[in-house]
Amino acid sequence: MPAKAAHVEKVLAVANSSSAAARSRLAASWRRSADKHGLDPGEIREPEHVGGSHLRERLEVLEKFMTVAAPRLDSLFSLVGQSGCAVLLTDDDGVVLDQRLSEADAPVFASWGLCVGAHWSEEREGTNGIGTCLTEQRSVIIHRDEHFFARNTAMSCIDAPIYGADGQIMAALDVSSARADQTEAFNRLIGAQVVQTARAIEEANFRAAYDRTRIVVAESDDADAATLLAIDEDDLIIGATREARRVFGLGATGALTPRPASDILGREDGPTGFEKAERAAVVRALARADGNVSQAARQLGIGRATLYRRMKRLGLDQS
Question: 201 and 91, same structural domain?
Answer without folding.
Answer: yes
